[in-house]
Automatic annotation (TrEMBL):
UniProt key word Lyase: no
Alphabetical keyword list: Receptor, Signal
PANTHER family the record matches: BLR1237 PROTEIN, TRICARBOXYLATE-BINDING PROTEIN
Protein name listed in UniProt: Tripartite-type tricarboxylate transporter receptor subunit TctC
Organism field: Pigmentiphaga kullae
Signal sequence range: 1-21
InterPro entries reported in the protein's UniProt record: BUG, Bug_dom1
The family this protein is said to belong to: Belongs to the UPF0065 (bug) family.
Tree of life domain: Bacteria
A Pfam family hit: TctC
Length: 320
């Protein structure tokens, strides 16, 4: 009798989860974005939200919660119910790099979130102002060595991907270009275009390269960027260590979200990403359209988190 009672309790405990997965979503879903409206993460989030809403018959609302390198959005979602109705979309730098370069990060990037889907792969390019007068990575290195401390590079802020990439380039090539941090991407690129800084790293400036206003010397990533097919990778340029400063955009849920709900969300996000017009739009932004499993996204986060721990120790970039 007792055995039957325990069996009934066990079965009844599973019913709500199964029922939830079968009926999900039964109300609007909020996608919390870590940047202001108008950015690339926001644009991809709105594209995916529209497709998912049409496919599942429920509204997917994009809510922007920018600030603190994505920590505000991440902490908000971390505290939300683990039911799949509050999702987080952000750049990998918040989870993989932020804990090493920011003080008092309010979450554990590995334990506090459940991976759902990767939405875009970032291929940052090394961009120089044509006035620098170099045509490849070798030429830039030679110029930096011939002019110690005189060349500079911009970034989107202390501890950002471009900052780490520039510091690693200095370390790997025994050069000392000066870091010039900006508050965001727009002023960084504006001053590069104006010739106030010599080079930077960015994934969304293909339009300036194609117009001749900037020159791309190499891209960070395992393969060439779709938007810049003639530009070699850093591995091809003889600096494979730069590949570690790669990144992506992804969707996460609070830890503990039912696996069946995550599986359904993953399938719907991937369906949106695989649409030809979605691929075209994402590539036009300078990114790669990707469709992965939750497990693959989790593996990518763990690998990148370890890589950045090693890189921050190596480059001695301090927290801020």
């Amino acid at each position: 009798m007792m055995r039957k009672l325990f069996s009934l309790v066990a079965v009844s405990a599973l019913v709500p989860v199964a029922a939830m997965a079968d009926t999900f979503p039964s109300k609007p879903v909020t996608i919390v974005v870590s940047v202001p409206a108008g950015g690339t993460i926001d644009a991809i989030a709105r594209m995916v939200a529209k497709d998912m809403g049409e496919s599942l018959g429920k509204q997917f609302v994009v809510e922007n919660r920018p600030g603190a390198n994505g920590n505000i959005a991440a902490d908000y979602v971390r505290r939300a119910p683990a039911d799949g109705y509050t999702l987080l979309m952000l750049a990998s730098s918040t989870l993989a790099l932020g804990p090493y370069v920011m003080q008092n990060v309010p979450f554990d990037p590995i334990k506090d979130f459940a991976p759902v889907a990767m939405t875009a792969g970032l291929n940052m390019a090394l961009l120089v102002n044509p006035k620098v007068g170099v045509s490849d990575v070798k030429g830039l290195i030679e110029k930096m060595k011939a002019n110690p401390g005189k060349l500079n590079y911009s970034s989107t802020g202390n501890g950002s991907f471009p900052h780490v990439a520039g510091a690693l380039l200095n370390l790997e090539t025994h050069t000392d270009a000066t870091h010039v941090p900006y508050k965001g991407l727009a002023p960084s690129i504006q001053d590069l275009l104006a010739g106030q800084v010599d080079f930077t790293f960015d994934s969304g400036s293909a339009v300036h390269v194609k117009s001749g206003k900037l020159k791309a010397l190499a891209v960070i990533g395992p393969k060439r960027a779709s938007a810049l097919p003639d530009v070699p990778t850093f591995r091809e340029a003889g600096l494979p260590e730069l590949e570690k400063v790669s990144g992506w955009h992804g969707v996460f849920a609070p830890a503990g979200t039912p696996a069946d709900v995550i599986k359904r969300l993953n399938a719907e996000i991937n369906k949106s990403l695989k649409k030809p017009d979605s691929v075209e739009r994402i590539q036009a932004m300078g990114f790669e359209s990707v469709a992965t499993t939750p497990e693959a996204l989790g593996n990518a986060l763990r690998t990148e988190y370890k890589n950045f721990g090693d890189l921050i120790a190596k480059t001695k970039i301090s927290a801020y």
